[in-house]
Amino acid sequence: MRPVSSTYVISGIAGLYVAQSVIGGVTWSALPAIMRLNGVPLDRIGLVSLIALPWVLKFLWAGAIERYRLPPVGRNRSRTVVAAGGIVSAAGLLVAGFLDPAVALPLLACLTVVAFAAATVDIACDGFAVETLARKQHGWGNAAQVGGAYLGSAIGGGLFLYLSGLYGWGPASWATAGLLLLLGSPFLFGAARDLPEEVRSHVPSLGTALSRPELRRGLLVSAVFVLAQKSALGMIGPLLVDQGLDAGRLGLLNGLGSFFVGLGAAVFGGICVRLFGVRSVLTVALLLQAGCLALFSSAASTAFVPLAITMTAAAASTSGIMAFGFVALYAQFMRWSDPRQAGVDFTLFQCMDALVSLTGGVAAGQIAERFGYGPLFTVTSFLAFAAVPLLLLATRRS
């Protein structure tokens, strides 16, 4: 591949990571709260997790996308994949703006199409970053990924919710569609423009990935960690709404938490990984999350926890602790990925993350609707504590 300015590459992939996280923030942070404000029952809100289905299944077409993107002879087609996915994502949000958030199923179907396009773009973006950046630049690429994720979450989960409270669901969705096209421009017209003809010998293979013990161990670690960290996150927003928090304040909480708390915790997590190792950071993250979940259980079951304390714990749980722990988890995934087909390997790890998030989110909605928030957060707090020895065992040295 021709030398490409690292500034172009990092700015290009950062824009794509922000765009993907904007979609995620709208879907998993803003939408549950908006649906609750429109009177949607908790079990229906739990179905929002089904929008993660394309992220669960994208390993099925990751190899095909990589083979199309990197033909045996010819130009790198990352630009084509990203452009097509970006157009579909923006169009999907335009359509979603005309749908009623109180009617769950049509909106969930529309946003699932958006998620499919975004998941496909992610395959191309990750592969392009790994193959284009020099090894010494990988740290900057990872910083773009983490920073982009939390900036996107602040926009999608915070600013979107705030604008929705001021102007309504439709205008907020349409503005976000335009933003997605803007965020993709640095990649399309900078990093991925005018790539040269190349000859390639390696063919990415899902079978090769699954045959590696490091990858199988990584899938187990992903399942355990994500179940403990993410399964109850979709119910935190509805809990705050039911305790009297309006959309505007919840949007500011999500936005400020995602950007300042999340970004700071991600940087701190990276430092701690270098100083203390991945296993130590993962363990601390699980214990901290268990404590926050126990506090949510108390807040839901008693009147002794002030709303301000619950809001602070929500920002810490959904932004700070998540960022701190997932920096370490993704650092381990990079170590377990084969550099020759990092797109396929990393996709498998992300699919396990999404699968557990999906099933855990659906189950959380059902438990909360039938038994209440208290039992839900009690169970998930126990899961976070119980995950510590399992994770230490799975990440032990051979």
UniProtKB/TrEMBL annotation:
<feature type="transmembrane region" description="Helical">
    <location>
        <begin position="252"/>
        <end position="273"/>
    </location>
</feature>
<dbReference type="Pfam" id="PF07690">
    <property type="entry name" value="MFS_1"/>
</dbReference>
<feature type="transmembrane region" description="Helical">
    <location>
        <begin position="42"/>
        <end position="61"/>
    </location>
</feature>
<feature type="transmembrane region" description="Helical">
    <location>
        <begin position="219"/>
        <end position="240"/>
    </location>
</feature>
<feature type="transmembrane region" description="Helical">
    <location>
        <begin position="280"/>
        <end position="301"/>
    </location>
</feature>
<dbReference type="GO" id="GO:0022857">
    <property type="term" value="F:transmembrane transporter activity"/>
</dbReference>
<comment type="similarity">
    <text>Belongs to the major facilitator superfamily.</text>
</comment>
<feature type="transmembrane region" description="Helical">
    <location>
        <begin position="7"/>
        <end position="30"/>
    </location>
</feature>
<feature type="transmembrane region" description="Helical">
    <location>
        <begin position="146"/>
        <end position="167"/>
    </location>
</feature>
<feature type="transmembrane region" description="Helical">
    <location>
        <begin position="81"/>
        <end position="99"/>
    </location>
</feature>
<feature type="transmembrane region" description="Helical">
    <location>
        <begin position="173"/>
        <end position="192"/>
    </location>
</feature>
<feature type="transmembrane region" description="Helical">
    <location>
        <begin position="343"/>
        <end position="367"/>
    </location>
</feature>
<keyword id="KW-0812">Transmembrane</keyword>
<feature type="transmembrane region" description="Helical">
    <location>
        <begin position="105"/>
        <end position="125"/>
    </location>
</feature>
<keyword id="KW-0472">Membrane</keyword>
<feature type="transmembrane region" description="Helical">
    <location>
        <begin position="373"/>
        <end position="394"/>
    </location>
</feature>
<protein>
    <submittedName>
        <fullName>MFS transporter</fullName>
    </submittedName>
</protein>
<dbReference type="GO" id="GO:0016020">
    <property type="term" value="C:membrane"/>
</dbReference>
<dbReference type="InterPro" id="IPR036259">
    <property type="entry name" value="MFS_trans_sf"/>
</dbReference>
<feature type="transmembrane region" description="Helical">
    <location>
        <begin position="307"/>
        <end position="331"/>
    </location>
</feature>
<keyword id="KW-0813">Transport</keyword>
<dbReference type="InterPro" id="IPR011701">
    <property type="entry name" value="MFS"/>
</dbReference>
<dbReference type="InterPro" id="IPR004752">
    <property type="entry name" value="AmpG_permease/AT-1"/>
</dbReference>
<keyword id="KW-1133">Transmembrane helix</keyword>
